[in-house]
């Protein structure tokens, strides 16, 4: 999940740096670091990236469901 968020943040030209780390593998916690240009708040960059990822996941899910239905109709 962290890599998806990091890569989506890197697509934004106003994001200077984006990275993440997992403090401990047994804890369900991820630390995300974002640095943006002076005129763009980091929380806005994260919100935009998460919203875009949500839209992409939704589109993927819809396409998957449609293809699964088409498969079962043919077989």
Name a few traits of the molecule.
two-stranded antiparallel ribbon, alpha+beta, 75 residues, 17% strand
Characterise the protein shown here.
With 75 residues, the chain is an alpha+beta fold. The chain contains two helices and two strands. Strands 1-2 form a two-stranded antiparallel sheet. The longest helix has 33 residues. The protein is elongated.
Strand content: 15-25%
Structural class by SSE content: alpha+beta
Largest sheet: 2 strands, antiparallel
Order of helices and strands: HEEH
- Poorly predicted ranges (pLDDT <50, ≥5 residues)? none
Helix count from the secondary structure assignment: 2
**What is the radius of gyration computed over CA atoms, rounded to a whole number of angstroms?**
17 Å
Estimate percent helicity: 55-70%
Shape: elongated
Question: Outline of this structure?
Answer:
This protein is α+β, with helices and mostly antiparallel strands. The chain is built from 2 helices and 2 strands; from the N terminus they run αββα. The protein is elongated and about 55 Å long.
Strands, helices and their partners?
Blueprint: H1 2-10, E1 15-21, E2 31-36, H2 42-74
Antiparallel strand pairs: 1-2
Helix pairs in contact: 1-2
């Amino acid at each position: 999940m962290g890599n998806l968020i990091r890569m989506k943040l890197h697509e934004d030209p106003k994001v200077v740096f984006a990275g993440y780390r997992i403090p401990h593998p047994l804890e369900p916690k991820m630390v995300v670091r974002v640095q943006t240009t002076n005129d763009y708040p980091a929380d806005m960059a994260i919100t935009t990236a998460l919203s875009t990822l949500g839209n992409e996941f939704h589109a993927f899910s819809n396409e998957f469901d449609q293809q699964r239905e088409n498969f079962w109709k043919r077989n």
